[in-house]
């Protein structure tokens, strides 16, 4: 048991940081650059950890210093619940709801830390983070709820037995559509926006606090993509040795991140806060709702179209 | 009773600068925002005063061309060009025609690389890093061209009183025209990437608008004024250097917003490429340096304008019959354009501040001519204060 737990945590940490390296290299290459080393996130993390954390005078120190720990702690718990590379997961009924809550905690930690930092940039960044969170969580939760209703359970081990993309492709599109916003890269890096508000909530953070806050964000990107992979692609493919399973899982997540985060980041500019809400509440939410409604009224269109898929 | 639709936010003062990632150079803006909306703005210059004008009075005139070239790293041809034209005007030196053509070639190449630099920075400000990387990579081609022509990429050292320093050979002209043809396709690509991108259109359409009346009232110059529909181009109006030989049309757009600024600058890249090719094709033969008395310059004064990439650049030169200048006054285009920030910023979103700040292509360091420090405190001095001697 303890070995599984440690293995999952170490794997999540390494994979989350490697993923950043891959994303940065992909973006760099599409911008005619070489980009940093694939281990750059590790260098950054360990350098920041070894430095001093400063707490500004005007902050509320408790909230300011608590936010990074909250962010990482919630992600470590989520790493144990989301079926990373195993057919089953550890926790019982209703763990999908718990995971959705946990995945919202790093942005909430940013909001808390940004508001507590006493900087106007942090305050504006926190306000933008709220808008962003509300925007992309809506289609994501509807898509997850649609899958859970179709599976008849909110338990991840039950849900991830099926590859739901073959039953609910519209919900899968909606969920994957939220990846760039969850990763907070262009066009949705509005809360950081270094040319506008100097990285917003991050601006007063330094040293280990900054390292943890960033680690929380990186873990969140990895776990968010892992959850989508587990729910929509299923965990049936992970029946090899644990090491091999981890590699397969990492490749799937890396492909998701490259195609839907790095690609967007390289080809767009930053959007406006007002546009994010319109953007996510229109098409992706509608797609997820359509899938949910069709399932509830009993239309199995994938079964009708292809005959082979569906429950 | 208050309007229910009118949302009320606490007013927040957001300082931008003197050191901020959105600004390449030190300047300070103080925005008053309600939620995401800017309701008031104040700006302050004078963080990068280098006493160029004073230095110009303390050296023999032969060294001043070198000095004024170093006012700006991007307009490194426009400043010395205007300066030598002023001196030639006072000393009545007839510049050979070939020299004026070579000066014009440099001036137009400078406009191409400056506008490409602007497009890259504008992309960076709205978070579009790929556009930034692309335009700056292709801008290197212009710098390579400068290196091939003069041996220097940034400070060309081209202008001299009475002529130019570097001649252009047949081979240089031929390879330069080849590079310009390539740059023409690049300009088309950038134009397509900027104008047709729906995300950029959403971000930039109607952002930082400036009406034609405001542009005239606030004395906007250069591409900033032309983007508001004011057909003013010093190249056309003053016909300095070799511009009199060509039929140029001031390129304008309507509205003065960021899209209009982009349209004006990107079409000016195309125009400059066309003009440079024409200049290479019609390059007259002859000497590149006029004979003149390089000991002293007769007393006199001259004021003149040159179209730098950022707009109208004004130089005033006064001589007193020695080999030192009596007075040199420089007004860079940003000082004229900076007033138009106020109507551009009012009512905009916080997210639009960097792109509006970048849209007039500011060059704060070139603008700073004066700063007053009294009792350890910096103070802004108005022209009224100066007249009344209250400094």
Measured between the Cα atoms of the first and last residue of chain A, the distance is 33 Å
Number of domains of chain A: 1
Classify the beta-strand content of chain B into a percent band. Answer: 5-15%
Instruction: Please state the CA-atom Rg of chain A, rounded to the nearest Å.
Output: 19 Å
Mean pLDDT of chain A: 84
**Number of beta strands of chain B:** 10
Helix content of chain A: over 70%
Going by helix content, strand content and strand pairing, the class of chain A is: mainly alpha
Q: What characterizes the major β-sheet of chain B?
A: 3 strands, antiparallel
Instruction: Please tell me the CATH architecture of chain B by its name.
Output: Orthogonal Bundle
Number of contiguous helices of chain B: 16
Low-confidence stretches of chain B: none
The CATH topology of chain B, please?
A: Cytochrome-c3 Hydrogenase, chain B
Q: Reading side by side through the largest sheet of chain B, how are the strands ordered?
A: 1-2-3
CATH class of chain B: Mainly Alpha
What is the CA-atom radius of gyration of chain B, in angstroms?
22 Å
Structural class of chain B: alpha+beta
Of all protein chain pairs, which has the greatest interface, and how many residues does each chain bring to it?
A-B, 30 and 32 residues
């Amino acid at each position: 048991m303890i070995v599984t737990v440690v293995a999952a945590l170490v794997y999540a940490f390494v994979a989350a940081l490697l993923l950043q390296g891959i994303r940065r290299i992909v973006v760099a290459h599409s911008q005619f650059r070489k980009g940093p080393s694939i281990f750059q996130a590790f260098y950054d993390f360990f350098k920041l950890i070894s430095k001093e954390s400063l707490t500004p005078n005007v902050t509320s120190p408790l909230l300011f210093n608590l936010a990074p720990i909250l962010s990482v702690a919630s992600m470590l718990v989520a790493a144990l619940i989301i079926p990373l590379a195993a057919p089953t997961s550890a926790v019982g009924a209703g763990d999908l709801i718990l995971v959705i809550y946990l995945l919202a905690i790093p942005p909430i930690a940013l909001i808390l830390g940004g508001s507590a930092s006493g900087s106007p940039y942090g305050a504006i960044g926190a306000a933008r983070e709220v808008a962003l969170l509300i925007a992309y969580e809506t289609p994501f939760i509807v898509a997850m709820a649609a899958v859970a209703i179709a599976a008849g359970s909110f338990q991840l081990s039950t849900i991830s037995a099926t590859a739901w993309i073959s039953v609910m492709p519209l919900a899968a599109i909606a969920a994957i559509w939220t990846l760039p916003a969850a990763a907070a890269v262009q066009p949705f890096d509005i809360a950081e926006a270094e040319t506008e508000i100097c990285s917003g909530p991050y601006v007063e953070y330094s040293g280990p606090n900054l390292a943890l806050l960033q680690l929380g964000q990186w873990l969140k990107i990895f776990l968010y993509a892992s959850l989508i992979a587990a729910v929509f692609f299923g965990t049936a493919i992970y029946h090899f040795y644990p090491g091999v399973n981890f590699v397969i899982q990492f490749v799937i997540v890396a492909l998701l991140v490259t195609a839907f985060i790095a690609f967007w980041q390289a080809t767009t500019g930053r959007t406006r806060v007002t546009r994010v809400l319109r953007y996510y509440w229109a098409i992706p939410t509608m797609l997820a709702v359509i899938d949910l409604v069709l399932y509830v009224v009993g239309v199995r269109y994938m079964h009708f179209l292809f005959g082979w898929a569906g429950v | 009773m208050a309007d229910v639709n009118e949302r009320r936010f606490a007013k927040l003062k957001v300082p931008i600068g003197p050191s901020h990632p959105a600004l390449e150079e030190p300047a300070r803006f103080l925005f008053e925002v309600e939620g995401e909306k800017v309701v008031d703005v104040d700006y302050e210059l004078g963080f990068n005063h280098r006493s160029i004008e004073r230095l110009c009075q303390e050296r023999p005139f032969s060294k001043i061309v070198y000095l004024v070239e170093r006012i700006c790293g991007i307009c490194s041809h426009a400043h010395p060009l205007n300066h030598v034209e002023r001196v030639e005007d006072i000393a009545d030196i007839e510049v050979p025609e070939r020299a004026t053509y070579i000066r014009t070639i440099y001036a137009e190449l400078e406009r191409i690389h400056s506008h490409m630099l602007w497009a890259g920075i504008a992309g960076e400000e709205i978070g579009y890093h790929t556009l930034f990387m692309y335009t700056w990579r292709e801008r290197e081609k212009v710098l390579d061209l400068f290196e091939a022509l003069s041996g220097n990429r940034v400070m060309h050292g081209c202008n001299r009183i009475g002529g130019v320093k570097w001649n252009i050979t047949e081979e240089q002209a031929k390879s330069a025209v080849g590079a310009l043809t390539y740059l023409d396709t690049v300009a088309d690509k950038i134009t397509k990437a900027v104008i047709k991108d729906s995300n950029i259109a959403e971000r930039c359409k109607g952002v930082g608008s400036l009406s034609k009346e405001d542009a005239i009232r606030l004395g906007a110059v250069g591409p900033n004024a032309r983007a508001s529909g004011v057909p003013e181009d010093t190249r056309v109006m003053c016909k300095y250097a070799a511009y009199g030989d060509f039929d140029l049309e001031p390129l304008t757009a309507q509205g003065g917003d960021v899209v209009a600024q982009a349209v004006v600058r990107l079409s000016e890249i195309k125009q400059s490429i066309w003009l440079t090719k024409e200049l290479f094709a019609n390059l007259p033969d002859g000497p590149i340096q006029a004979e003149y008395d390089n000991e002293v310059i007769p007393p006199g004064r001259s004021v003149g304008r040159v179209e730098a990439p950022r707009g109208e650049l004004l130089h005033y030169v006064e001589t007193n019959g020695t080999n030192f200048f009596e007075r040199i006054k420089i007004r860079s285009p940003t000082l004229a354009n900076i007033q138009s920030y106020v109507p551009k910023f009012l009512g905009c979103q916080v997210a639009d501040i960097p792109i509006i700040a970048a849209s007039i292509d500011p060059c704060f360091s070139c603008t700073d001519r004066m700063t007053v420090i009294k009792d350890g405190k910096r103070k802004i001095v108005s022209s009224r204060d100066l007249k009344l001697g209250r400094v």
